[in-house]
Design brief:
The protein is built from seven helices and four strands, in the order E-H-E-H-H-H-H-H-E-E-H. By secondary structure, it is α+β, with helices and mostly antiparallel strands.
Length: 119
Amino acid sequence: MHITLYGIPNCDTVKKARAWLAEHGIEHRFHDFRKAGISPELISGWLAYLPWETLVNRRGTTWRALPQERKDAVVDDGSAIALMLESPSVIKRPVLALAGATHVGYSADLYQQIFKAHP
């Protein structure tokens, strides 16, 4: 099974997810979207599984630093994709892609459930 974890390496939640995967011997590829970039096609693929409201982290510092008019302009997939391409750190992390599914966020319980369903 091909597993990719997307995020940025200095994010505490991404660090926890990477540690969990390592502890459980789950091979995966890590994609640092600040260094390796992110494409509209990749984000569109995630949006096939998740609503944009889940992918855009509206509690993070990147979102809070945006001017109100920029925040107000994010109303659909297209405007959310544009924002995520413009400011990748607004993407809620980590994004875990495996077996035709995409999951956002991390908790040990969530990852236990995901990998129980995808052995």
